[in-house]
Design goal:
about 600 residues, about 55% helix, globular
């Protein structure tokens, strides 16, 4: 059960603001939603443009459907005998987000859905037991296995009705998104499945054709919120009225001022919830001294989302630090904590201990980050996020060709992904080169201490698990000076290599490595970095170092199914080690394995 808890799905849901009272009534009364609601099985795909409240809708539906399910069970229980009580709906959910590694893939989504389902119906755990026994926690990384378990559990007679709300399908990683959509389409078009299921899905996404095409095989299942202009406009008006009331009270505005302010917003150029929300936040933070000056600022409000973003960042008190913070936030594989951001910002190439950072650290990380980046970032549970997915799209360059500064605003498309990854890769590497990780490393036979050690060294978990990916995305292996620095982290026999790799392996899979005989080439092969492997061989690393099954570079690459690295090592003359025997090519291995295993082991 615990191994399915791979993401903090509850906190991911709570990232979204609550709906304003009176909004979204149009959705609950929409013909397609009502049809979906009345059916025992079915899928409803809800599309809407960016910033129009899809995630708020999804969060609201989770709460609303849970309340409805509880009320229906209570009412049914009062009216009939206990054995006649209709099973309560199990409502499960997942919110995809492009800015968080544990919200980006369908394997995380399925793990979350199963964890919620099994928490309500523990008897269904039987469908996962065999896979857990044979594969351990690794089964949570396999989409096919998770989907098979999910399908078996939801068609079990003891399961009852299940409702799944999955938000922002367009922000799911491409390969697993395809797996998820294809599996849903097959399930809802298979006569053998639909007859047994009490399973309903609501999916939300932007209205992209590449999501629509695979769903075209299903009946009419799409609710196009982007075409519900009058309904969305009415909801935005309710939102505006609510915000005007709060702002009017704060600035002691007259009734006439409030009406003018309301009308200005309702007639705004960019009629999205996000635009309205950001403008109100800007007004709430206004530094003007008088009500008159405050009202004068209303004549100069940004007319669209891009202009809002430019204004927010244009008002930064330190644009240089703001850019560095945003590079880190955009490149990070998961939201960094305030303490992690503080270290990532402060660290320099010459720092060898955490004490060296003290003169460069922020006086108050949360206050400073908010002061410098304004409304462009938000802090939730001490973790830093961009205000919205559109903020990332606004910042990030879509091509490697730079536009002249005169042809674009100061901040739009100002962040190059390569440069952003390089910024974070350097922070990670400089941290891993701290002296303490060499002189007082983790011990391979005391792996239970990893969590406590990583908690003590705040940035270690992120740096150990992600430095190599950032280095690859930044092209560090192509630059001699940068690659030399990166190779220091790979130094064979070093305490720091042992330390960061123990942390990395704990997050991935500990079964396939001998930590007592660790070497750089085997580690590089394990994580699948072809360019690092090439560079290490060029630097003279012994390609056949490590004679044990789980420490030889070729064996580890094969166990990790890193085909490119396996081919590279074989082409460079690597020897296969198997049960104590050595083989020069894969044909010999095949011949060896074709014998009975007892004979092979006896003769080895």
């Amino acid at each position: 059960m615990r191994c399915l808890y791979t993401s903090d799905y509850e906190s991911h849901k709570s990232r979204n603001p609550a709906r304003v009272d009176g909004t979204l009534g149009w959705f609950l009364s929409h013909e397609k939603y009502r049809q979906w609601h009345e059916e025992k099985s079915g899928l409803l795909w809800v599309t809407a443009d960016p910033g129009c409240g899809k995630s708020v809708l999804a969060a609201f539906l989770v709460d609303e459907l849970k309340i409805q399910s509880s009320l229906r069970q209570d009412q049914t229980g009062m009216q009939g005998a206990p054995e006649m009580v209709e099973p309560r709906d199990t409502v499960c959910f997942f919110f995809f987000k492009d800015d968080n590694q544990e919200q980006k893939t369908a394997t995380f989504a399925l793990s979350a859905l199963l964890h919620q389902l099994f928490s309500v119906k523990p008897v269904l755990l039987r469908h996962a037991v065999n896979d857990y026994k044979s594969k351990g926690e690794k089964f949570t990384q396999e989409f096919g296995t998770l989907w098979r378990i999910f399908k078996a559990a939801t068609t079990d007679r003891e399961c009852g009705s299940v409702i799944c709300i999955v938000d922002a399908l367009d922000e799911c990683d491409g390969s697993t998104r395809k797996d998820l959509i294809d599996s849903l389409v097959r399930m809802y078009t298979s006569p053998s499945s639909t007859g047994q299921m009490l399973l309903k899905f609501i999916l939300t996404s932007r209205p992209y054709g590449w999501i629509e095409r695979p769903f075209s095989r299903l009946p009419s299942i799409r609710l196009k919120a982007e075409e519900q202009t009058p309904a969305i406009s009415a909801d935005i008006e309710l939102f505006v009225i609510s915000e005007v009331e709060a702002l009017g009270n704060a600035w002691r505005l007259t009734d006439g001022d409030r009406i003018n302010l309301r009308d200005k917003f309702i007639q705004g150029a960019d009629r999205t919830f996000l635009w309205v929300s950001l403008i109100f936040k800007i007004l709430h933070g206004s530094q003007t001294a008088t009500r008159r000056k405050f009202l004068d600022t209303l004549d100069y409000l940004p007319s669209d989302l891009d202009t809002v973003y430019e204004k927010i960042l244009g008002d930064s008190c330190d644009p240089e630090v703001a850019k560095r913070i945003l590079q880190i936030v955009v490149a990070a594989t998961r939201p960094l904590t305030l303490d992690e951001m503080d270290i990532a910002l402060a660290i320099q190439p010459n720092h060898k201990a955490i004490e060296d950072l003290e003169p460069y650290r922020l006086y108050s990380a949360e206050t400073t980050v908010k002061d410098i980046c304004g409304l462009f970032v938000k802090v939730i549970d001490s973790k830093i996020y961009l205000i919205h997915q559109t903020a990332k799209e606004f910042l990030t360059k879509r091509s490697t060709t730079a536009q002249p500064a005169t042809e674009r605003p100061a901040w739009k498309q100002s962040l190059c992904p390569v440069e952003s990854n390089l910024t974070l890769a350097k922070s990670c590497i400089y941290y891993l080169l701290f002296t303490v990780f060499e002189t007082r490393p983790l011990a391979p036979h005391r792996q239970w201490e990893i969590d406590g050690f990583a908690k003590k060294h705040v940035f270690l978990d992120y740096a150990a698990n992600n430095w190599a990916a950032h280095a690859l995305e930044a092209g560090m292996w192509e630059e001699e000076e940068l690659s030399t620095t990166a190779l220091e982290v790979f130094k064979s026999g070093s305490g720091r290599l042992l330390t960061w790799f123990l942390v990395y392996q704990k997050a991935v899979d500990r079964r396939y490595f001998d930590f007592t005989i660790i070497n750089s080439l085997a580690v590089a092969s394990c994580i699948g970095h072809e360019k690092a492997v090439k560079l290490l061989i060029q630097k003279g690393e012994d390609i056949n170092r490590g004679r044990s099954l789980y420490c030889n570079a070729l064996n580890v690459a094969a166990l990790r199914e890193n085909r490119i690295v396996v081919k590279l090592l074989l082409n460079r003359g690597a020897i296969v080690y198997l049960y104590g025997s050595e083989f020069r090519n894969l044909l010999e291995v095949n011949g060896y394995l074709s014998r009975p295993m007892s004979e092979a082991i006896t003769n080895s």
